[in-house]
Design a protein that fits this description.
disordered N terminus, mainly alpha, 15 helices, 306 residues, single chain
């Protein structure tokens, strides 16, 4: 059954059996691991998921696999919420105090709270306005290759800056909006990487690598939670519906992949913050270029289709 678990068989009026299938749990675990590792690394989680899904034989432009890809991101973002829980509570509390009391608005966390809100607006607008395009033509592996290579140049330029001295206390509304605009590029071009876009924006604004990475996490929480909830609500039927000649993903594999991504992402976050405290992003940039080259070879050889 090509690695897919058959749930039941139905017979149409002519008596010919039709199989309705669900994603194999092993595939779900693999994709959950891929999501957990790549969601917050600047190497494109969506790009990796679509590549692996393609290699596993799924139609990456199908409604079911598109919904699956978006929903399992909730696991990774829950990991970020758990990891940064104290920071989140502190920022929300400061923002609420600032709304209620004018003299509390000098708190840096009050400004950061507004920055996160304002910085999250561009990606929400892009996601809603260009949803069909994002899930259609822009999901091509050739688009992913172009984005991987193109944004590697942007990351390399940002990473070479010498004046990376700004810290979390220096965050302004303007900085947040710039980072938010960069973040909005990620859903349009899978392969850029949401974290790669926001971290690069932070570096271009002169923030230290660790601060830029933390800002990337903070900016990603509202955007990814909203995207995951939206997909879960609007595309729930796509998870269980089998397209013509295709495969129904199923909720059990989706839940398994989400839980796996949560666990893996938690450790990925801890590792990344430790890594960027004393290292540049050169390794990630090289990896992106190598990955793009591998995809090009696979496409040229016909091993996968775009």
């Amino acid at each position: 059954m090509n690695g897919r678990a058959r749930l039941w068989r139905a017979r149409p009026s002519n008596g010919t059996p039709i199989a309705k299938e669900a994603m194999n749990l092993l595939h779900a675990i693999i994709l959950g691991i891929v999501e957990g590792i790549t969601e917050f690394l600047p190497i494109s989680s969506t790009g990796h998921l679509r590549i692996v899904e393609k290699l596993l034989g799924y139609d990456i432009q199908g409604a079911g696999i598109t919904a699956f890809t978006a929903i399992i991101q909730v696991g990774a973002i829950l990991a970020a919420i758990i990891y940064f829980w104290k920071d989140i509570v502190r920022i929300i509390a400061a923002w609420c105090r600032g709304l209620a009391h004018k003299d509390e608005r000098s708190d840096l966390d009050y400004t950061l709270g507004w920055g996160i809100i304002i910085g999250s607006i561009p990606v929400a607008v892009v996601g809603l306005v260009f949803k069909d395009l994002i899930e259609g033509a822009l999901s091509s592996l050739w688009v992913i290759v172009a984005a991987l290579l193109g944004w590697s140049i942007a990351m390399a330029v940002a990473d070479r800056r010498q004046d990376l001295t700004r810290e979390m206390g220096d965050v302004s509304i303007k900085d947040a909006l710039v980072i938010g605009l960069f973040q909005a590029l990620a859903p349009l071009f899978p392969g850029i990487s949401r974290s790669g876009a926001t971290i690069s924006a932070g570096l271009f604004r002169g923030y230290t690598r660790e601060t830029a990475t933390r800002l990337s996490f903070y900016m990603g929480i509202p955007a990814l939670v909203a995207a995951g909830i939206y997909e879960a609500v609007t595309a729930a039927s796509d998870i269980t519906a089998a397209p013509s000649g295709g495969v129904a993903i199923g909720w059990l594999p989706t839940i398994v992949a989400t839980l796996v991504s949560l666990v893996v992402a938690y450790f990925s976050i801890a590792w990344l913050l430790k890594f960027v405290s004393s290292n540049k992003f050169t390794g990630f940039i090289v990896y992106r270029v190598v990955l793009a080259a591998v995809i090009i070879v696979l496409l040229m050889l016909g091993a996968v289709t775009a």
